[in-house]
Specification:
- Helix 1 packs across helix 12.
- Helices cover 48% and strands 16% of the residues.
């Protein structure tokens, strides 16, 4: 099981977009994924087609990993293999222990569900929630927008993570995001590559309006807009991060697209947000 945090102190760099699309791509190729929306803005929750749950991450933090609370907080997204613990505005006003997420990902409940990957989306600051995510994570992705101020902040961020929080630098990957073919963004891309060559992913994510359109429609871009220019790049990222081959990813995504266009898949998606592996869920489905 890999625990992966998406983080950056700067807002607007695409953390939530990256977290959501990595989770979707992995889920569609057969990986079992849990996403944790560790942000009071809870935007990741919406991108996965669900609403803030009555029992959510704020309750997990407050309960100190109560087993019943964790079970109730797990929600099915619009993809079969992707589950979510939703964020909540209440995350901004509760006391948070930095070991809580570490205890959560190592709990018997989460281990019993046998996730291949856990992805934690974080708010644009290094508050107690982000510190908890760092303590729980094995690997880190730092999305960066290809603009001067965003690039300038990377040196400080890398120093903070490695020196203050003890993160091994080799476990950090920088993802260049929102690229478009302008002289300035090309220069910024080259600068990031030069400054952090051992940590920069080869894949660069282009700016793509299709992402905003898909979020509005509560759909997966991999199923509904498979020819969008960002789709192949997110596929490349999971190959680069997890060692899949391009042919393997493409083949599995084609199978998933066929599956999710079937009548059975449409019916299953109607049953989203009823929780996971509880007697109550089975009764609701039967009804």
């Amino acid at each position: 099981m890999y625990v992966l945090s998406i983080l950056n102190k700067k807002g607007g760099v695409g953390k939530t977009t990256v977290a959501s699309h990595l989770a979707q791509a992995l889920g569609l190729i057969g990986q079992k994924v849990l996403v944790i929306d560790n942000d009071e803005q809870h935007n990741l929750t919406r991108t996965l087609g669900i609403s803030v749950a009555e029992v959510n991450l704020a309750d997990i933090y407050s309960s100190n990993i109560d087993e019943g609370i964790v079970v109730k907080a797990l929600k099915q997204t619009f993809l079969e293999n992707v589950h979510c613990i939703t964020g909540s505005a209440r995350l901004a006003s509760i006391n948070i222990h930095t070991e809580t997420l570490k205890k959560l990902v190592n709990s018997e409940i989460i281990k019993g569900l046998q996730y291949d990957v856990i992805i934690i989306d974080n708010c644009p600051s290094f508050d107690a929630k982000t510190k908890s995510a760092i303590a729980a994570s094995d690997f880190f992705i730092v999305p960066v927008q290809l603009k001067q101020l965003a690039v300038d902040g990377l040196t400080e961020l890398m120093a903070l993570m490695t020196q203050e929080y003890g993160v091994d630098k080799k476990n950090i990957r920088i993802l260049r995001n929102f690229w478009k073919p302008t002289r300035h963004r090309e220069a910024m891309s080259i600068a990031v590559q030069s400054m952090f060559q051992d940590n920069v992913l080869k894949t660069i994510i282009p700016e793509d309006e299709a992402i905003d359109e898909i979020v509005t429609d509560n759909k997966s871009i991999f199923l509904s807009r498979s020819k969008a220019k960002c789709v192949g790049k997110f596929e490349d990222v999971i190959c680069e991060l997890f060692g899949f081959t391009t042919d393997e990813v493409w083949s599995k995504l084609m199978e998933a697209r066929k599956k999710y266009t079937s009548d059975i898949a449409r019916e299953n998606l109607k049953k989203a947000n009823i929780g996971i592996n509880t007697r109550q869920n089975e009764e609701e489905v039967a009804a």
